[in-house]
Amino acid sequence: MTTDADVIVIGAGLAGLVAATEIADAGRKVIVLDQEGEQNCGGQAFWSFGGLFLVDSPEQRRLGIRDSYDLALQDWLGAAGFDRDEDLWPRRWAEAYLAFAAGEKRSWLRAMGHRIFPVVGWAERGGYDAMSHGNSVPRFHVTWGTGPGLIEPFVHRAYAALAAGRLTFKFRHRVDSLIVTNGVVEGVSGAVLEPTQAERGASSSRTVVDDFTLRAQAVIVASGGIGGNHELVRQNWPQRLGTPPRRMISGVPQHVDGRMLGITEAAGARLINRDRMWHYVEGLQNFAPIWPRHGIRILPGPSSMWFDATGKRLPAPLFPGSDTLGQLHAIMATGYDYSWFVLTQAIIKKEFALSGSEQNPDLTGKSWLMTARRATNKGAPAPVEAFKQNGADFVVRDNLPDLVAAMNALSGDNLLRLDDLRSQIEARDREIDNAFVKDAQVMNIHNARRYIGDRLIRTAKPHKILDPAYGPLIAVRLNILTRKTLGGFETDLDGRVFGTGGAIMPGLYAAGEAAGFGGGGMHGYRSLEGTFLGGCLFSGRNAGRAAAKAVA
């Protein structure tokens, strides 16, 4: 067979770039295909906060955090809840990934110039028991430079390989089918789309100007998930989470459409755990959207009071930052697809961050001066203040009656009763008078402030919500925000894809979100956060190295 390259990689996102650069660095020739233009090189990772899950890192140790592989494994298994026959390879991937996160992950990245913001975040805190969901300690390491800073080393490596003649980019090449001969994957075919000048993340033309066929000894599918395709999200929505939301906003661009999942499955690949997904419940409508239904996630501290659409406080331990999937289940059980934060200006100043590189110009721009102002400014960070002033989901008032009336007007459902909200807020406020309390959320706040990172920049001083000294009052309508596909193609630890008959499909590999970040779903049901980008790094590296050896 005449080949155009040793390996073809489908997708120029983070997993695809990692795989392609590993192949090129091994001396093999690789073609990288992507249906979008060159301006989208790096994929979804560009838009990310750049959070990475690390275990027993120097950053943790400097902050007095005691972590270990065993503690991380305990937390991972409590979150994942592996309970299916199909979880054999996902669990093996989880164990291997944790060894990577506790081992060479940091040094491997650091050797490429990657750096980490010194304060470690505490995401998905759980709050059940030691063996249940949640991070026992802070593990969320933010890339200095956020998403763009994370993809930068791999973009640099890719273009160095391009200059050396070992890597070829073919943007605007949409794969429509895999070429399979006698069960062996030998290449791809598809359509060439017209050039596009659409800005990164914006929807691009699907006008076809040509077709193509390319052959190689191996094909790696690194095409991402389904978060931009709400029809597919609803088709795969699990019954355990109730009826799919009537309305959702998108945390990923429209080109995250899931096409390659169907195409690869039709070629014989085994897709597992498709009902496992990770969508956020703290979504805001972007007042300056880049892609259709563009949403931004709030990264909340622990102090905002959380109410469902009917005005009932979410039960313990479903506090901000504790259990994304548990919160989604509770919200959908109400029959409504939105909920509310009620907070103060003091809380929004200290505790609100927005996910995304473009919402964090200080970290993305690597400005220590701008970053320091987060702790010293009188107001919230500028992007947060911009959403407070311009966002469709924010209500700001000086007193509770006016706030509740405006909340009802915004939702249009008129479900909230002033007396109900007042009684719940006043009851919580009475708990602030003592350092010892029975309100679980207030206990959670005190616990958070025992960690120096939270006390300095992430958790407001405990205060009464209705104390005007900390006002004005703020309400935020929270929307369901689509994001990650946790299931994917079943793979071994080399990223080789299993076929529907249970045997490896020769010549076919998968990495990143298309592989459920490893094995077909290494997260199980829940993520501990910081593990999506890390899963792309690890699965892309494994698949790239294995494919390079296989074509030697």
UniProtKB/TrEMBL annotation:
Sections of the chain in a coiled coil: none
Pfam family, one: FAD_binding_2
UniProt entry keywords in alphabetical sequence: Flavoprotein, Oxidoreductase
Record domain FAD-dependent oxidoreductase 2 FAD-binding: where: 6-533
InterPro entries: FAD-dep_OxRdtase_2_FAD-bd, FAD/NAD-bd_sf, KsdD_DH, Succ_DH/fumarate_Rdtase_cat_sf
Cofactor(s) required, per the database record: FAD
UniProt cross-references to NCBIfam families, sorted A to Z: PRK12834.1
PANTHER family, per the entry: 3-KETOSTEROID-DELTA-1-DEHYDROGENASE, KSDD-LIKE STEROID DEHYDROGENASE RV0785
Protein name according to UniProt: FAD-binding dehydrogenase
Species annotation: Rhodopseudomonas telluris
